[in-house]
Amino acid sequence: MKVSEIISGLKQPGFSFEVLPPLKGKGIEQIFKNIDRLREFNPLYINITTHRSEMIYRSTADGLYERVSQRNRPGTVAVAAAIQQRYNITAVPHLICSGFSKIETEYALIDLNFLGINNLLVLRGDKAKHDNRFVPNENGYSHAIELARQVNNFNRGFFVDGTNMDIITDKPFAYGVAGYPEKHEEAPNEEIDMMFLKQKVDMGADYIVTQMCFDNAKIYRFIERCREAGINVPIVPGLKPIVNLNQLTMLPKTFRVDLPNELALELVKCKDDVHAKQVGVEWCAMQAKDLYEHGIKSVHFYSHNATESVRKVLEAIF
Fold it and tell me: Which residue among 126, 180, 244, 302 has the highest number of C-beta atoms inside a 10 angstrom radius?
């Protein structure tokens, strides 16, 4: 079933969350433990993040350095398959432009098609750490809408070189895209940001997951603006329970989001991460309750594998 259908058919509040593939060389057991911690609350689906390669410098035998590409978290497709098979829960792997070529994306789509994984979250992804702006991979894409177009063409039976294929099943890929209640950091204004979001929905995206947001007033305003723009697909607010004091400054810097003054003042009072985590759980639970009371059918937790806090949030609201 498509994620949009799962959300639209809800009779009571639901939630989803994400997991990160393990670091290269690590096993999948910790991911299973994180899922087991939340499984009793019946998650609607589980997202699996995708991570680009980064360029690093490695010493050679002759004492020089060579620049090589290294991916620290491979395995998104395999993790998605393992989750769907083990738990019979819809797995939603991220498909990103960042660090991937058109052909690499095509191979991922073929593998996912064979595995019967038909839901995606289509994203541009982050810039490389060594770049001051987003630079697409060679023979890759600069924008998520281009990636969505490739998925659409794949669903119609065409490879990137235009040739036909015969592997398509009766379940084409469905996909969601990201929305930004506080505007994408690279958008010149809210109007342009909304224009691009509308284009992605018109392209075929059938639901939207928002960037993490700590202010429900901004989420409600974003949803209202989407409806005014003619965007009528389900919109899933993204929430994140703060887990340590460092995130007081790190989250606004990294994700270009603001923390409401009330939340920031409570975090400033915290003397250690234990208290900060408690504040984070209480704030996130308050947000989720308010969203559900205002008719939001589902929320998405940016857990980043910190499922202990997500569990406490769920215990507080269900």
Answer: 180
- 8 A C-beta contact, residue 163 and residue 142: no
Phi, then psi, of 18 in degrees rounded to 5: -125, 155
Q: How far apart are CA 256 and CA 238, in angstroms?
A: 14
Q: Checking phi first, is residue 204 left (phi over 0); if not, alpha (psi -120 to 50) or beta?
A: left
Rounded to an integer, what distance in angstroms lies between the CA atom of residue 211 and that of residue 254?
A: 12
- Supply the DSSP string of 222-237, one letter for each residue: HHHHHHHTT--S-EEE
128, 96 contact by CB (below 8 A)? no
pLDDT in tens, 254-298: 899 999 999 999 999 999 999 999 999 999 999 999 999 999 999
pLDDT, average across residues 21-36 = 91
Burial of 238 (0-12, 13-18, 19+ CB in 10 A): buried
Report the distance separating Cα 298 and Cα 208, nearest Å: 11
- Longest alpha-carbon distance in the chain: 65
Residue with tokens 């019946």: 42
Of the candidates 44, 41, 54, 147, the one whose C-alpha atom is nearest the C-alpha of residue 104 is 147
DSSP letters along 45-57, please? EEEE-----EEEE
Give Cβ neighbours of residue 48 (< 8 Å, ≥ 6 apart): 18, 19, 20, 21, 76, 79, 80, 83, 91, 92, 93, 94
- pLDDT tens column, 78-98: 999 999 999 999 999 999 988
pLDDT band at 135 (very low <50, low <70, confident <90, very high): confident
239 vs 120: CA distance, rounded Å:
19
**Global pTM value:** 0.91
In the chain, the N- to C-terminal Cα span, in Å, equals 24
- Round to whole Å and give the CA distance between 313 and 108: 34
Amino acid at 194: M
Quick one: angle between helices 273-293 and 307-317, nearest 10?
50
